[in-house]
Amino acid sequence: MVLGYHSRKRGNPSAQSSYANKLQKLTLKEKAVKRTILGSVSSIAIHPSETRTLVAAGDCNGNIGLWDLKRRSADIYVFPVHSRRTRIVAFSPSDPQYLLSLGYEGTIRCGDISYSVFDEIYHAEGYLTSFDFLSVDGSVLLASHYDSKLSVVDRRTRNKTSNVHGCLDSKFVYSVSVHPLQRDLCVVAGSSDVLVYDVRQLRKDTTQPVMSLLRHTSGVASASFSPATGNCILTSSMEPCLQ
């Protein structure tokens, strides 16, 4: 896997070096390792609470496991949510009692972790690959389809289909990430492309990107804006590393 770093501003070299040194000093204790699900982990999310550490993990079989690291008991709660790989799990930014998940079978579900109930909020024809929160409160999602489409999903409506559907100028799409400040902008990763789109310009025919970033030589697995400012984009690719 190759990581790419795209930014208009260069970071502070000394700060990056100090951070790297701190990472090298981290240790992993045996009691901090736990099998949360039976299948291989395909996604993970950490609850934003400042008083507890709650981890959600999705696996290749469509299960979601919850692990509360602060509890003395070693109980792991596992929920069979999807029929295929759980691609994305994410806690709602406005109410983290709710856990949202996306499965490859083409559904997005919202689970109330207090009652262990996961309701379907969106169903698509074909594979879904990713989603991000389009609105600050998390009520509106932007979901990506493998066949190069984006859908806007409003959790507040009873309609389980998309309100906006746009076809992108890419062979296929693996991930989508919404700019944290300019929320009309999103970056998508696909074949060897990293493209920035304006959600307001989505069209059912081919939608042109507003910006195209440096191309990888192999498929791009993901591309994400930096969470605070959005000035940087981190990409990952399966192209071989150069020694």
Automatic annotation (TrEMBL):
Keywords, A to Z? Answer: Repeat, WD repeat
Q: What is this protein called?
A: WD repeat-containing protein 76
Q: So what family is this one in?
A: Belongs to the WD repeat DDB2/WDR76 family.
Q: Which Pfam families match?
A: WD40
Organism source for this protein? Eleutherodactylus coqui (Puerto Rican coqui)
Q: Which residues form a coiled coil?
A: none
> Cellular component GO terms, alphabetically?
nucleus
Q: What is the protein's known function? A: Specifically binds 5-hydroxymethylcytosine (5hmC), suggesting that it acts as a specific reader of 5hmC.
Q: Which SMART domains match?
A: WD40
Determine if Repeat is one of this entry's keywords: yes
GO biological processes: regulation of DNA damage checkpoint
